[in-house]
Amino acid sequence: MNQNLAAPDALTARLRITELVDNFFGRVDRGESVADLLEEQAQFVTPRRTTQGREAFAALLLSLAQERRDKGRVARHFSVNVTVQDLGSGQFRVRSLAIVISLDSGPGAKGSMNLGDHDDIVTFDSSGTCRFVKRTVTPASQFLLSPLGDG
Amino acid sequence: METADQPAHPPLHHEETIMIAEPSLLDPATVYARIRELLNEFYSRDDHGESVVDLLEEEAQFVTPLRKAQGRDAVAALLQSLAQSREKKGGVGRHFGAKVNVENLGSGKFRVRSVMIFLSLDSGPGAQGFMNVGDHDDIVAFDSRGACRFVKRTMTSAARFTLSPLGN
């Protein structure tokens, strides 16, 4: 665990955490690595799998992005309702609602919108940089979207 | 921000609610960040069936085309009963706000306009999903300690859609 030698004030912590969450999903959508946004022993927990370790966590997300590309699927992830609770010692509980809108390609392609509740742990290091210690997602609901064709 | 020991919006005694912070003490960036935090906290708790009572002023009002409630406890109870009703039916609902605009009304009060999106999904055979879009026109007040709460939340329905559930 990092020592919280440069504890940010509450508003700064909140802004940096929101930036971290946005940065994470921005990279996921672009198929870029999130490795430097994760603590070394970071965990990613979903109902289907648990992945531990920065490299394994980042590799999993890269492989999922590659899988989407291979299928001709486009996906955009974003978070809303980000709430932050100071747990002390530079750690924060971060809850948010993740929305994933995705669209397949080809004849009969379908779109979908998935909602998931995130309950994460974020830590700040001595330089004031924050990273995920753990990301836990629980699916909330899934909807079918009908593609409108190319805009 | 909430801490483990001290919630961001501790319950107020009546005498504290009338002690409004001097607007000059609140810089716009802090005001905006705290109001965003208030909105996020409100929707997050509502979605999880948790009480929003400490996010409301004592005489807070909640007005929608279908419902009206006045008073902190009545508004909080209404929202919890709606969440329980959804849960009892096996439904899931998630709200979020976007495009938050803040206007300083003076005396520690702010007009907060935003778009609210509510996504919900029924359960069981023939279950339907819905997306409701509404315009919120709210009043938020800051107290002498810099905490903010809703004085009034008014929602006007803008558009409604059906969504097809995708299944598990």
- What is the CATH C level class of chain A, in words? Alpha Beta
Reported for the largest beta sheet of chain B, the result is: 6 strands, mixed
Sketch the topology of chain A as an H/E string, one letter per element. HEEHEEEE
Principal-axis shape of chain B: elongated
What is the average per-residue confidence, as pLDDT of chain A, rounded to a whole number? 91
- Spatially, the strands of the biggest sheet of chain B line up as 3-2-7-6-5-4
Structural domains of chain B: how many: 1
Question: Order of SSEs of chain B, N→C?
Answer: EHHEEHEEEE
Number of helices of chain B: 3
Strand content of chain B: 35-45%
Neighbour order of strands in the largest sheet of chain A: 2-1-6-5-4-3
Quick one: biggest sheet of chain A?
6 strands, mixed
Question: How do the strands and helices of this protein lay out in sequence?
Answer:
The complex is a heterodimer of chains A (151) and B (168).
Chain A: H1 10-30, E1 38-45, E2 50-52, H2 54-71, E3 74-88, E4 91-103, E5 111-124, E6 130-145
Parallel strand pairs in A: 1-6
Antiparallel strand pairs in A: 1-2, 3-4, 4-5, 5-6
Chain B: E1 2-3, H1 14-17, H2 28-47, E2 56-63, E3 68-70, H3 72-88, E4 92-106, E5 109-121, E6 129-142, E7 148-165
Parallel strand pairs in B: 2-7
Antiparallel strand pairs in B: 2-3, 4-5, 5-6, 6-7
How does this model look, in words?
The complex is a heterodimer of chains A (151) and B (168). Chain A is α+β, with helices and mostly antiparallel strands and 151 residues long. Helices cover 26% and strands 46% of the residues of chain A. Chain A has one domain: Roll (Nuclear Transport Factor 2, Chain: A). Chain A has two helices and six strands, in the order H-E-E-H-E-E-E-E. Mean pLDDT of chain A is 91; it is low at 1-5. With 168 residues, chain B is an alpha+beta fold. Chain B has a single domain, classed as Nuclear Transport Factor 2, Chain: A (Roll), CATH 3.10.450.50. Chain B has helices at residues 14-17, 28-47, 72-88; strands at residues 2-3, 56-63, 68-70, 92-106, 109-121, 129-142, 148-165. Chain B has a six-stranded mixed beta sheet, covered by helices on one side. In chain B, a hairpin with a 4-residue loop joins strand 2 and strand 3. Chain B is elongated and about 55 Å long. In chain B, 31% of the residues are buried. Classes of the chains: A alpha+beta (151), B alpha+beta (168). Strand 3 (74-88) of chain A pairs parallel with strand 1 (2-3) of chain B, so a sheet runs across the interface.
